[in-house]
Amino acid sequence: MKRRLLFLGPPGAGKGTQAQRLAEHHDLLHLSTGDLLRAEVRSGSELGRRAEAVMARGELVSDDLVLAIVRHRLEGHGGGWLLDGFPRNLGQAEALEHLLAELHQEIELVVLMELPDEVLLQRLLQRGRADDDEAVIRNRLEVYRQQTAPLIDHYRDRDLLRPIDAAGTMDEVSERIETVLTGPV
Ligand code: AP5
């Protein structure tokens, strides 16, 4: 099974939900930059204060800050990992490739979770996180389309991309992901 994974997809596609399940089931390090940033905000640190306003608008926090967080977690971790919500733009993807080359590791598979906008919106409005206000969700979707969606071609060109249908129950989606992880690249 592939054990060095990226989860890509729009806000609300279920990346966090599925990443957590998979990481528990297969003993992978689950690294969600969104969760790590929210922990910084809760801690009241200077970094958290800077990130909070950016996140409340649904914009991306600076690459340097996010990269420092990811580097800190991956260095010294020998096992498998699952990156959820990172990279988020081409600059982060390139920086990640340099970091992984340094660590003598490489991405084995990128799971792209696909879901129509109206379903994403409904899921997020029901969740009600601080940035799940309708106007902010629409901005997050726009940021995804402009900055993150170009990563789809980036990983498709490298033969790493596996799109999956993120509609249906959580168990159905988990099953689809398990199937692509054990299949041929
Ligand atoms: P982040 O935390 O990454 O949020 P996101 O990408 O907007 O993703 P979500 O958490 O909203 O959705 P998800 O796909 O994980 O879905 P989930 O499983 O939660 O980022 C938040 C902010 O942090 C960004 O806007 C940015 O400011 C900053 N940030 C983070 N990473 C960054 C980076 N690398 N660079 C710069 N800035 C960064 O599911 C959503 C809901 O749907 C849940 O309620 C869940 O229970 C439900 N659900 C899940 N699956 C199903 C299902 N099958 N059926 C029904 N409901 C379901």
Defining key terms:
single chain; about 180 residues; alpha/beta; Rossmann fold; about 60% helix; globular; binds BIS(adenosine)-5'-pentaphosphate
Description:
Helix 1 (15-26) packs across helix 9 and helix 6 crosses helix 7. This protein has 185 residues and is an alpha/beta fold. It has a single domain, classed as P-loop containing nucleotide triphosphate hydrolases (Rossmann fold, 3-Layer(aba) Sandwich), CATH 3.40.50.300. The relative contact order is 0.21. Strands 2-3-1-4-5 form a 5-stranded parallel beta sheet, with helices on both faces. It is globular. The protein has helices at 15-26, 33-43, 46-57, 63-74, 90-102, 117-127, 134-148, 150-157, 170-182; strands spanning 4-8, 29-32, 81-84, 109-114, 161-165. 58% of the residues lie in helices and 13% in strands. The model has no long low-confidence stretch (mean pLDDT 96). The chain binds BIS(adenosine)-5'-pentaphosphate. BIS(adenosine)-5'-pentaphosphate (AP5) binds next to helix 1, helix 2, helix 3, helix 6 and helix 9.
